[in-house]
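Field log, afternoon session.

UNIT: design team B
ACTIVITY: writing a sequence onto a fixed backbone
BACKBONE:
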């Protein structure tokens, strides 16, 4: 069985607005709603767990979920202090018969169900699989004052995305080990890498952007309205 964890417990500080970024309007629906619908339409996913701020559970139920025509029941889970804590709360909540867990940032609303499916299939083959895109820009390492120290080779460098899919036992062990060690990673794959396990990366889409700034929302709207996903 495949269980999905959609993480939307962030405060959206970088957007500098009064509403959390996951609830902002994107072409007539909240950003988060688009992510939920993509997962709901993927035949591989059997259960969906939505992790949101504890104080937002009622809002999400009444203002988002109740307005969507969904095939799957959405299980609401309260988030933690950091993203990693929120994912762990989700891992603790899912059905223990789960074999595969796929984790996604709720503020990546342009994920396509077929890309999600390929990520899940990849995890079943390799144990862990994430979406990403090869780096195309020139990479610079800079010091704290913004002075360039070196130009880095971009060969074999990829930009990681979500969804990220794992064998349940593997990702649970990775999170528990990180908690024990006091380690905080920038994504779930990094926690699995710490265990010495292989993580496969496959081609995602450059449209699968994460909404962190106001201009990201404008780009997402243009992509969505143009029917490019």
């Amino acid at each position: 069985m495949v269980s999905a964890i959609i993480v939307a417990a962030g405060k959206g500080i970088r957007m500098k607005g009064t509403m959390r970024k996951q609830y902002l309007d994107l072409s007539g629906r909240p950003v988060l709603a688009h992510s939920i619908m993509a997962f709901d339409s993927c035949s591989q996913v059997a259960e969906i767990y939505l992790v949101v701020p504890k104080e937002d559970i009622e809002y999400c139920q009444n203002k988002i979920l109740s307005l969507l025509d969904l095939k799957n029941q959405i299980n609401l889970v309260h988030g933690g202090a950091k993203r990693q804590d929120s994912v762990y709360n989700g891992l603790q909540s899912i059905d223990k018969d789960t074999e595969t867990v796929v984790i996604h940032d709720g503020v990546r609303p342009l994920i396509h169900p077929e890309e999600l499916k390929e990520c899940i299939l990849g995890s079943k083959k390799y144990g862990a699989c994430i979406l990403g895109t090869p780096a195309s820009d020139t990479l610079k390492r800079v010091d704290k004052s913004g002075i360039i120290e070196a130009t880095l080779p971009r060969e074999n460098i990829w930009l990681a995305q979500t969804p990220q899919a794992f064998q349940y036992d593997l990702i649970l062990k990775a999170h528990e080990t990180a908690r024990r060690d006091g380690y905080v990673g920038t994504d779930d794959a990094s926690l699995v890498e710490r265990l010495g396990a292989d993580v496969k990366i496959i081609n995602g889409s450059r449209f699968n952007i994460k909404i962190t700034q106001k201009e990201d929302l404008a780009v997402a709207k243009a992509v969505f309205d143009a029917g490019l996903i």
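LOG NOTE: The CA atoms of residues 9 and 97 lie 25 Å apart.
NEXT ACTIVITY: expression trials, pending approval
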